[in-house]
Q: What sequence folds into this?
């Protein structure tokens, strides 16, 4: 086995262990391979080892890979910061967006999702640890935006995503993930289709699985250290 296949198997073992340790149903956590900065050959190695879902953060780079790999049955997830003038390319090329944090972007994605494609799956990105984390909605803003989705026929609101500041201790890692789970429960009456918690990365996937993650986004633990700043 090559290095990527080995690391992918190791990540799958970590997910299975965490599911068992925290009373989660086997197979209830899906793995999104975060392939930003990686060349298409690395994605192919992961694909040959059984991986189909890939997450990308940089639109131009992602579009090149989507084109290069278009003959393969891959599912593309956009997880990066959204710019208003880039929503059309996202709406046309991805199956999922995890990083919607602006009502204007949601409206544009809804208008621009091509009619021949299934609705775009959306997670709202929520910021739970005030200063340190990156972009995201406050819980109140997430409630407001979730309520707007009844008007978006081309989008399917699936759940919430968070990208907390790194924390070393397991119990500390769990806190923002627990808040995200509680917020999802609160939003359920507003949006009955909610079934996703996109949370957990290479260093904190166990804590995220313990708190109910349904999609973990893993880059470094599969592909090795990134070459350039991400
Ligand atoms: C880069 C990135 C990841 C993956 O991080 P790793 O620590 O490499 O596993 C997950 N989610 C988002 C939004 C990212 O930008």
A:
């Amino acid at each position: 086995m090559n290095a990527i296949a080995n690391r992918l198997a190791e990540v799958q073992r970590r997910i299975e262990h965490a599911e068992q340790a925290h009373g989660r149903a086997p197979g209830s956590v899906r793995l999104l391979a975060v392939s930003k900065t990686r060349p298409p050959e690395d994605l192919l190695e992961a694909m040959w080892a059984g991986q189909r879902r890939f997450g990308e953060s940089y639109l131009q780079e992602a579009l090149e890979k989507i084109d290069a790999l278009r003959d393969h049955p891959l599912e593309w997830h956009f997880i990066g910061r959204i710019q208003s003038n880039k929503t059309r390319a996202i709406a046309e090329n991805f199956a999922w967006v995890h990083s919607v944090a602006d009502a204007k972007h949601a409206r544009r994605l809804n208008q621009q999702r091509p009619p021949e494609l299934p609705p775009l799956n959306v997670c709202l990105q929520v910021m739970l640890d005030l200063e340190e984390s990156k972009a995201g909605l406050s819980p109140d803003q997430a409630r407001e935006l979730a309520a707007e989705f009844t008007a978006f026929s081309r989008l399917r609101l699936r759940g919430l995503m968070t990208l907390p500041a790194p924390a070393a201790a397991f119990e500390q890692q769990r806190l923002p993930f627990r808040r995200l789970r509680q917020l999802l429960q609160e939003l359920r009456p507003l949006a009955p289709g909610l079934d996703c918690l996109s949370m957990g990365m290479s260093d904190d996937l166990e804590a995220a699985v313990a708190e109910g993650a349904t999609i973990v986004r893993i880059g470094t633990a599969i592909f090795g250290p990134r070459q350039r700043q991400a």
Summary: The longest strand covers residues 155-161.
